[in-house]
Amino acid sequence: MKTGLLILLVLHGLIHLMGFTKAFGFAEMKQLTQYISRPAVILWLAACLLFIIAAYLLWRKADMWWVVAIAAVVISQVVIVMDWKDARFGTIANVIIVAGIIMGAGVVGFKNSFLSEARNGLLQTPYFKDGLLTEEDLASLPEPVKNYIRYTGCVGKPRVNRFKIIFHGALRNNDQSTWMPLTSVQYNFMQEPTRLFFLNAVMKKLPVAGFHCYKNRKAYMDIRLLSLFKVQFQKGPDMDQSETVTFFNDMCCMAPATLIDPRIEWLETDGLNVKAKFTNGHIAITATLYFNKTGELANFISNDRYSTDEGKKLPWSTPLHDYRLINNHRLPGYAETIYTYPDRNFIYGKFSIEEITYNFDAISKTV
Questions:
Q1: 3-state secondary structure of 343
Q2: Cys-Cys with 219: which of 151, 243, 252, 323 at CB 3.0–4.6 Å?
Q3: Domains of the chain (ranges plus CATH)?
Q4: Tens digit of pLDDT for each residue in 283-339?
């Protein structure tokens, strides 16, 4: 869809060169039978340039592309009306472009709501004191957790107060539905537990965007077709608890240095398995962390997350694989998200980690 709009902007822009060419006599344009004055040709040329600039900005994912495109459409329609007999069919292209502009403005607005929340997150004061993570910080942790933090290479590196994750992967709604490819950007902040997850996906060849927001112990999920039309929206106590589980899962899997958090209560240790309780205000959840002999976190299982389809709690797990160096930390490169039903395990998400950044100082303009 984006590619089609790019091509249309460029071609429609170049067509406006016909008026410029005819007015200055550079070539004979039999398609244009009416006289075009030299002053009017400036409008033809301006429309051409603005359409091409809008295409370039769209290609570069610049938010303001649609503003330039609006100006181009207005000028284009003016010259079309002035030369209606010959140029009236250009109105069709302008109508299609206006539809693209409406969708583009929706995309920008939806995306900016995510980026605005992320910028607000940057205003949080540091939760952990400045400095490097030390063995002393690990003193009260269960032995498997200590070994995991050491294995991932967190000791001797700065304590983590916020982190950003870039994924690609796929989601599906049920066993019968097809996988929906996605890319996502996520920001987590520790002082006031905040998780901001934005995804771009394709469903039945149409673009879908989603925003999961968790802050102040409240959560909502907003999924939109073309970034305009809500196809799924959820909030409420069940969502608040589920996203608390997800936030703790992020800490365990993507930012092991944060496991020194005093909001975690380590309940019991059974060999390489450790049960933990994470409390955020009035919400408390539990999970069991399964480590292997290498020191890796192999799985995370919680019974406190609600299935969006069933509307009830189901065991939720995230098996982790492909540990590798990411930003100088040894972290899982691939994970799955699974709900366990009485009769089966349902894998609904597959995620490959592209990039993790700790203690970033700025929010990217692109998602």
A1: coil
A2: 243
A3: 2-104 (no CATH), 127-358 (2.50.20)
A4: 999 999 999 999 999 999 999 999 877 778 999 999 999 999 999 999 999 999 999
Please count the other Cβ atoms lying within 10 Å of the Cβ belonging to residue 217. Answer: 15
Tens of pLDDT along 250-291?
999 999 999 999 999 999 999 999 999 999 999 999 999 999
- DSSP structure class, residue 367: -
Residues 191, 192, 197, 198, CA torsion sign: negative
Contact yes or no for 258/244 (Cβ under 8 A)? no
E strand or H helix that includes residue 269: strand 264-270
Q: What are the CB-based long-range contacts (under 8 Å, 24+) for 113-116?
A: 113/211, 114/196, 114/198, 114/211, 114/213, 114/367, 115/363, 115/365, 115/367
Query: What are the E-state strand segments in 190-328?
Result: 194-203, 206-215, 218-225, 229-235, 264-270, 273-280, 283-291, 297-302, 316-317, 320-326
Element (H, E) at 174: none
Distance of CA 189 to the CA centre of its chain: 16
- Cα(159)–Cα(309) distance, integer angstroms: 38
| Number of C-beta neighbours around residue 113 at 10 A | 15
pTM for the structure as a whole: 0.85
143-179, pLDDT tens digit by residue? 999 999 999 999 999 999 999 999 999 999 888 889 9
Longest dimension (CA), the chain: 88
What is the amino acid identity at position 271?
G
Give the pairing of strands 218-225 and 206-215: antiparallel
Retrieve residue 170's tokens: 């796929």
Q: Which residue has the tokens 């583009």?
A: 104
